Amino acid sequence: MPKGIVICTSSNLYQVKVENEVYNCLARGKFKKEKIAPLPGDKVEIMIEENKKEGIIEEIMPRQNELKRPKMANLTQLIFVVSMKMPKPDLLLLDKQLIFAKWLDVNSIIILNKTDLVLEEQTKQIAKIYKEIGYHVLETNAKQPSEIIKLKTYLQNQITALAGNSGVGKSTLLNNIFKKEITQEGEISNKNQKGKNTTTKVTLYSCDESSYIADTPGFSTFELSEISSNDLDRYFIEFEPYLGQCEYAGCNHIKEENCGIKQGIEKGKIAKTRYQNYQKIYQELKEKEQKW
């Protein structure tokens, strides 16, 4: 049977790309009994109806990973888009997303978008923090095609999702990557300068035979239900060299003295803004755990 990848889902209909053809498929009833539904990114086997662009999904291959929000599978890379203005940068959200990507064990890339709307120094300050940690950071203006070329090099042989608040420019970036309007660009509310969400479902767009990129519904909050407060420090990658230097076993790096993480801050090896976000996220997780 032909093998393909699910590129879009709508109710009980699934679009499956097999080589250069796209088939509208239904799924076998057995998946419903097994409480499994095909997701964008799933590798599947289908039975194709003769002389038609229609088929039936017969098998779903084992998944490398699965995301609940947005619903997709087999992701290998997340690109987090941060707007430098309208809306303003949300670094707490970015740090939560980076934590999630590390938990999911996928590659992370940061895009600082709309750089033309602010002073260069504002962009450089944020870029410096994350570059020193080891993240790839791109500074882009989605309206300039020359800057999109940098982004394309990161997409090869990957299943990538763009993530970030509504209005940060994800859809505009996609439209510029493909040099045509494939997604609807979001508007910015004049009242609060927050984006209006225009993407309501996940669709994988083919860059080439082995590379796909997805726009995902924008969101202004991000929950880290998979991670405990006691494990949080493992997901701040610049903390790693200092985790064994705390005086007390099980140090949470909040109120404790002789803390390796605090020593890293004093030495200038850990950014204060990142540590402050660690404290905020730790407190959020702790409060949730106390309610359970």
Task: Describe the 3D structure.
The protein starts with a strand and ends with a helix. It has helices at residues 29-33, 91-104, 120-133, 145-152, 170-177, 260-266, 272-291, and strands at residues 3-10, 13-18, 21-27, 43-48, 54-60, 66-67, 72-73, 77-83, 107-113, 136-139, 159-163, 203-208, 211-215. It is an alpha/beta fold and 292 residues long. It folds into three domains: 3-62, Beta Barrel (OB fold (Dihydrolipoamide Acetyltransferase, E2P)); 72-215, Rossmann fold, CATH 3.40.50; 229-291, Probable gtpase engc, domain 3 (Ribonucleotide Reductase Protein R1, domain 1), CATH 1.10.40. The protein is globular and about 70 Å long. A hairpin with a 2-residue loop joins strand 2 (13-18) and strand 3. The chain has a six-stranded mixed sheet with strand order 10-9-8-11-13-12, sandwiched between helices. The chain is 26% helix and 25% strand. It has seven helices and 13 strands. 35% of the residues are buried. Helix 2 packs across helix 7.
Q: What keywords describe this structure?
A:
alpha/beta; OB fold (Dihydrolipoamide Acetyltransferase, E2P); Rossmann fold; Ribonucleotide Reductase Protein R1, domain 1; 6-stranded mixed β-sheet; 5-stranded mixed β-barrel; 13 strands; globular
Low-confidence stretches: 184-199
- Approximate strand percentage: 15-25%
Strand arrangement in the largest pleated sheet:
10-9-8-11-13-12
Just name the CATH architecture of the largest domain: 3-Layer(aba) Sandwich
Query: What distance separates the N and C termini?
Result: 47 Å
CATH fold-level topology of the largest domain: Rossmann fold
Structural category is: alpha/beta
**Biggest β-sheet description:** 6 strands, mixed
Q: Counting H and I runs of at least 4 residues, what is the number of helices?
A: 7
Shape: globular
Number of strands: 13
CATH class of the largest domain: Alpha Beta
The figure for the number of domains is 3
Within CATH, the superfamily of the largest domain carries the name P-loop containing nucleotide triphosphate hydrolases
What is the mean predicted local confidence, pLDDT? 88
Rg result = 21 Å
Order of helices and strands: EEEHEEEEEHEHEHEHEEHH
Helix content: 25-40%
